[in-house]
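Give me the fold.
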Amino acid sequence: METVTNKFFDDEIVYVDNNAFIGCSFSEVTLVYTGGVLPEFTNCQFDSVALRFEDTASKTLKFLSDLPDLGFSGALDDVVQSIRAGTVE
């Protein structure tokens, strides 16, 4: 994992997989997660940040969004509830 310390990101696209961000500031950026090693954010500031999911991460979201059409609305509700509770593994 690469560590990025005290960097200011402004008006750019930042791929976050496999990175630990410490004391960084993000302004008007798009954070992109592709499904790799989860990023870490410590003492960072965020202003007008968008999120984008690509590759494996995007496929996972597509699968989740299709669950109600497959008859698994309850399962999707459980996933969303675990996300809100912070208990996703």
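The mean pLDDT is 94.
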